[in-house]
Amino acid sequence: MGLLVPALAGLLFLVLPLVGLVVRAPWSTMPARLAEPAVLDALWLSVRTATMATAVCLVLGVPLAWLLARADFPGRRVVRALVTVPLVLPPVVGGVALLLVFGRRGLIGEWLDSAFGITLPFTTAGVVLAEAFVAMPFLVIAVEGALRGADTRYEEAAATLGAGRWTTFTRVTLPLVAPGVAAGGVLCWARALGEFGATITFAGNFPGRTQTMPLAVYLALETDVQAAIVLSLLLLAVSVTILAALRDKWVSG
Amino acid sequence: MKPLRLMAVALAAVLAFAACGTKDDPAPQSGEKGVTGPVTVFAAASLTEAFTTIGADFEKAHPGTKVTFNFAGSSALATQINEGAPADVFASAAPKNMQTVTDAGNTKGGAKVFVKNQLVIAVAKGNPKGITGLADLAKPDVKVALCAEQVPCGAAAKKAIGDLKITPVTLEQDVKSALSKVKLGEVDAALVYRTDAKSSPDVDAVEFPESASAINEYPIAALKNGPNAAGAGAFVAYVLSEAGRAVLLKAGFQAP
Fold first, then answer.
1. In terms of residue numbers, what domain contains B19?
2. CA B94 to CA B77: how far, in whole Å?
3. Do both B74 and B149 map to the same domain?
4. Is B46 marked as binding a ligand?
5. Contacting residues of A for B148, CB less than 8 Å apart
6. Same-domain status, B141 and B224
7. B1 and A100: CB-CB below 8 Å?
8. Containing H/E element for B221?
9. Do B142 and B234 fall within a single domain?
10. Along chain A (253 residues), what's the average pLDDT of each consecutive run of 10 residues?
11. Smallest CA–CA separation between B50 and chain A, in Å?
12. Per the confidence metrics, is the pTM higher than 0.90?
C-alpha cells in the first residue's frame, strides 16, 4: 500500500493529459483530417529525422559514454556536467546557440558556407542536428549508467587474453551493455521525435523540409485546436507503437 | 514554446490569485468611482512595449490599480480566455482572434479597433543587399523569412505578396522569431510589422506600397468573466483615449 498509492497517483498524473486529448478529439472527422497529405509529410519527416538523429547520437554518444565511464582523466566531472547542458538549456535557447555556431554567420557555419557551400539552417540536415543536440544526453546518460553497472572483469579478462581496446569494446563491452544502449536509443528517439524548440529556432518551419509533427501541431493550434489534437494523437500513437514494438524486441527480449 | 504558454497561463492564474489578497485593501480615492484593484490584461505580443508604458500611465491615472499583463500570440490568448483564464481585458492583433472570443460569448460591450499596424520589409542594418521593394525578395540570392499563414503576420504577408513569386526559406511561428532571423543574419529579409522593426535597433525597415492592401486591425474588449469589471472598462477607455493613442503612435502603430 505504502508504494502503491503514490505509484498509482504518478500513473494518473502522466495519463490524465492523454485522456484529455482523447476525450476532446473530433473522432468523426478524424479519418479525413489524417488523410491530408501535409499530415503524412510531417509525420514521415518526423520519423525520418528522429531516426537519423538517433543514429548520430549512437555513433557519437556511445563512445562518449564509454569515455565517461571507463577512462580516468582530469576534469571528468566537468565533462559529465557539460554533457547535460542540452537537458538544462531551454530548447529555444539551444536553437539560438546552434545558429550562433552553425548559422550563416556562425563560428563554424560561416566557414562551412564559404569552403563547401554547406548551409545547415532551414534544411532537413538542420532538423537532424537540432534533434541530435537535444536528445544526445539521454543516450549518453543511459549508456554510461549501463557501463558503470557492467562487470569490468570481463573486459580485463579479454585484455589479458590479448584483445585490443577496439576488439574488447566491440566484442565484450557492447554486448554486455546492449540493453542499456537500446534503452538509451529508445529514449533518445522519443525525445528527438517530440523536439520542438531547437528545431523551429534552428531549422525554421517549411512544409516537407523542416516542418516536423510538433511544429505542425503548434501551428495547427493557432487556427484549429481540433486539428492540433488529431495531430498530437497521431504522433503519440505512432511513437507508442514503435517504442512498444522495439521494447519487446530489444529490451526485455 | 508550448510549455512556455502553459506556464504563462499558470502564472496569470497565480498572479490573479495573489492579487485577490489585496482586493479588500482600502484603496486610495481614484478619479472614477470603483476603479481600483488588479486589472489583468491579455494582449498580443506585438503590443508588449506600448502596453507596458500604457499600463504604468494607467496606474498613475487611477491610484490603487495594478495592471498585470499576459503577452502572447493572439490565438493562444483567445484559447486561454475561452478556456476560462481570469482576464479582464483582451487586446488582439487580429479581428479573427477577437471574433473567437466574442463568438464564445466572453466579451462585454463589443470590441473596438484601437490601432492599425502595417507590414514592412525588415533588413539588416545598412541594408547590405540593397532591397528597395517587394520584387527584390523574389531574387534567388535573397533569403526570406515569412510568418506562417496561421498567424496574423503571415496572413497579412500572403495578402500583400499576392501573385508575386517569393519562396521563403522558413515560415516562422510568430513575428518576433521572423525578426530574430534577420537580426542573427540567417535571412536577408523578413516581412514584419512596422512596430516590430522600429523596436529593434539592429534592423532597418523598408516600406513597400503593397502593404497597404494588408493592414492589420487591433481590436480591444472588456471580458465578461473578468473579476474587475470597473477596472476593465477604465483600461479600455484609457487605451482609446488621446493619452493612450499617443503612446501607441509613438511605437509605430497607426490610428484606426
1. 2-115+217-250
2. 12
3. no
4. yes
5. 205, 219, 222
6. no
7. no
8. strand B216-223
9. no
10. 92 92 89 86 95 97 94 91 94 95 94 92 97 97 94 90 90 92 93 95 95 93 85 90 76 50
11. 24
12. no
Specify the DSSP element, H or E, that contains A172: none
Total number of domains constituting chain B: 2
To which H or E segment does residue B70 belong? Answer: strand B65-72
Domain A38-251, CATH: 1.10.3720.10
B159 is a domain residue: yes
Cell numbers at B134, concatenated:
517587394
Asked whether the beta carbons of residue A99 and residue B184 sit closer than 8 angstroms, the reply is yes
Contact (CB<8Å) B1/A196: yes
Residue range B6-36, pLDDT digits in tens = 555 554 544 444 444 443 433 334 445 678 9
8 A C-beta contact, residue A179 and residue A248: no
Same domain membership, residue B143 and residue B50: no
Is the same domain home to B226 and B183?
Answer: no
Contact B186 A220 (CB under 8 A): no
* Predicted complex ipTM exceeds 0.90: no
* B73 sits in which H/E element: none
State pLDDT tens for residues B133-143.
999 999 999 99
List of chain A residues whose C-beta atoms are within 8 Å of the C-beta of residue B1 = 92, 196-197, 200, 218
Type of residue found at B222: A
With an 8 Å Cβ cutoff, are B2 and A105 in contact? Answer: no
DSSP annotation of A247: I
CB B117 within 8 A of CB B218: yes
Nearest CA in chain A to B172: A205
Which residue does chain B place closest to A217, by CA atoms?
B2
Q: Is residue B237 located within the same domain as residue B171? A: no
Per the domain annotation, does B255 fall within a domain?
Answer: no
The answer to whether residues B14 and B91 belong to one domain is yes
Of A217, A205, A46, whose CA–CA distance to A121 is shortest?
A205
Residues of A in contact with B171 (CB under 8 A): 204-207, 211
Nearest to B246 by CA among B117, B54, B88: B54
Q: What is the CATH number of the domain that holds B153?
A: 3.40.190.10
Are A223 and B76 an interchain contact pair (Cβ–Cβ within 8 Å)? no
Question: Residue ranges per domain, chain A?
Answer: 38-251
